[in-house]
Amino acid sequence: MKFNPYQVLGIGSEAHEAEIRRAARDLASMYHPDKTDGDTEKMKDVNKARDILLDPARRRTFDLTGEIYDEVHEANLAKNLVMDAAHSALGRPDGHDANLISVVRETLRLRLAAVAAARVDFSQERIKAAATRRRVFSFCADENIFDKMFEDRAHNIETTLLDLAQQHRVLKAALKILDDYTWLPAPFGLTDQSHTIELPLLLNGDSHGPSPENR
Questions:
Q1: In 10 A of CB 79, how many CB atoms?
Q2: The domain 5-65 belongs to what CATH superfamily?
Q3: pTM exceeds 0.85 for this model
Q4: What proportion of the chain, given as a percentage, has pLDDT over 70?
Q5: Torsions phi, psi of 206, nearest 5?
Q6: Residues 6+ apart with CB under 8 A from 109
Q7: Are 9 and 24 in contact (CB under 8 A)?
């Protein structure tokens, strides 16, 4: 069963901050591990539910999508993005000669710019849709047949904006990962064309190459 913070706290989806805190406090007093009949797992669920509902972005995400924003999950997504970009870079004709870190960073920056532009576009679309809805007036007091269409459209836009916001966070986290890496110059004797190493062979402690009998 999917985790539902409202069900865990026993409150409705319209609950305000004070209700959330009160419900969490009451349940915590019941399940606290220090009590003889305490329950550690239920206590964790209460804390998790409280934290989600007191965070406006996480609560909004759950209300619209039923999904819970998870920092650990997004950190793993960021790592996967870096690896995917690296694999793609190595698949290019010059993949093994180019600065891999720079190529991956530029790929992620371009994607981040595209996501940022899309967020602006959809934010403007949300404003336009709301303005259009206000202009559709019904003389029938009890029904406006266009309302459902506008509600669905608004929901779709909000869901898309939440998805883009997550992509934006993940891409920024992926770029931050690259801050821990640098690209070193090629080792001495390693040519860009052949990728062969021309270094003295070290056999039996002889730095001048193999002995005549081993040549």
A1: 14
A2: DnaJ domain (1.10.287.110)
A3: no
A4: 84
A5: -95, 115
A6: 175
A7: yes
